[in-house]
Amino acid sequence: MYRPGPAPPPSSEVVRARFRRQGRRDTAHELAVRRRLHARGVRYRVDVRPWPRPEARPERARGEEDGVLTGCFWHGCPSCGHLPRANRAWWAAKPAAHTARDRRADAVLTGLGWRVLRFWEHEDPDDVADAICAALGRPAPSPPDR
């Protein structure tokens, strides 16, 4: 399997600053989904390692169901992922390596009896929460009274 190797130097200070600001967890989308799940009574642990190997640290909802919110840029989203112009060869390999690691983690988790649900960061947080609740066998929330 090809791994892209160390990151090339940033093409500018603006790019360097942008990537330094990029969080690894607790993104706005993750927090929005977590708020919706919590409001629906779904409890979970964040950044859990289900086994000693580091392939995945899913958010674990009670009921042995796990959702991993996948970043569109870093994991090569087919609908909104894009490659930067600078260092194109390296950036072409990076999301491919992440996707391959994701598939390996899915296989390991599934082999341990977990059900893995992956969602893209561009997906509507309400839709993601609905899908997680459906996988947990929880009823959809009632629409608000008008």
UniProtKB/TrEMBL annotation:
Record domain DUF559: where: 98-135
The protein, known as: DUF559 domain-containing protein
Pfam families reported for this sequence: DUF559 (PF04480)
SUPFAM superfamilies in the cross-refs: Restriction endonuclease-like
Gene3D superfamilies: VSR Endonuclease
